[in-house]
Amino acid sequence: MSFGRLGGQARPKEKPLTEGHVAVGVIEEAIEDGPTEVQGPDTLIIGADVPAHGRLRRRVTSPLPAPGAGRGLVGRTVRFRHHTYDPDDTDDIRVVRWPAEVRKTLEPLRTEGPGSGRARAWRFLGRCSAVATAGGIPLTTVMLIGVVFTSGELFADLPEWFRPGAVLAASAGAAVLGPFAFAFCESRRTAALAHSRCMNPAPAPTTRKG
Predict the structure, then answer these.
(1) Residues 78, 167 contacting (CB under 8 angstroms)
(2) How far apart are CA 141 and CA 171, in angstroms?
(3) Which residues of 25-50 are buried (b: 16+ CB within 10 A; e: fewer)?
(4) How many Cβ atoms sit within 10 Å of the Cβ of residue 192?
(5) Local structure of residue 73 (DSSP, 8 states)
(6) Looking only at Cα atoms, what is the longest distance across the chain?
(7) Exposure check for the chain: N or C terminus, fewer CB within 10 A?
(8) How far from the centroid of its chain's Cα atoms is residue 150's Cα?
(9) What does the radius of gyration of the chain's CA atoms come to, in whole angstroms?
(10) Cβ partners under 8 Å of residue 188, min gap 6
């Protein structure tokens, strides 16, 4: 049996699967996209045994965006809706309940308690460190070209207060020290969260069989 184009979504011209039959299946396989410039999430193959109708095979895009993350879901149970019992209609699916680890990953984290404010502050500083690192690397390259290879002539038209040596030192420092600062901020954020009570939003209600 062929699954056609991998990674396909539900057919856009059909109405959403808000109604229909309910089945419980198992994620049998996770297929990664082929080697492309931008690799997307995996395609999950789901199998479900339906009494009097045999085994259905369905496919759906993994809710975890990282390539290869779907491999960790193989063997886990999902609940989905479908319109037909056609085993070859692989796009006839809407998952209504993912495994617990998927829901936990996708749900935004909220914190309460004495450490929540510090955790948010360290998270903000960590993001600033990441931005400084991302900007410091290309800026260091440009400054090195201007200072070393052109002897400063690249910056001749800039204002007098511009000091290429100082900018080079700052950008190089950001590129080198940024990752260490980010790691430190993340460790402090984790420590702050240890003193907080982490709460996730209530999970979506389980779809009841019609």
Answers:
(1) no
(2) 9
(3) bebebbbbeeeeeeeebbbbbbebee
(4) 21
(5) G
(6) 83
(7) N
(8) 42
(9) 25
(10) 118, 122
First to last CA, the chain: 30
| Confidence (pLDDT) at 147 | 72
Whose tokens are 């184009």? That residue is: 5
pTM over 0.85: no
Length of the chain in residues, anyone? 210
Averages of pLDDT over runs of 10 residues in the chain (210 residues) are: 43 52 92 69 91 91 84 90 89 89 65 65 83 82 75 69 77 83 82 58 41
Report how far apart, in Å, the C-alpha atoms of 208 and of each of 15, 17, 23 are: 19, 14, 11
Contact 71, 42 (CB under 8 A): yes
State both tokens at 205: 């209600």
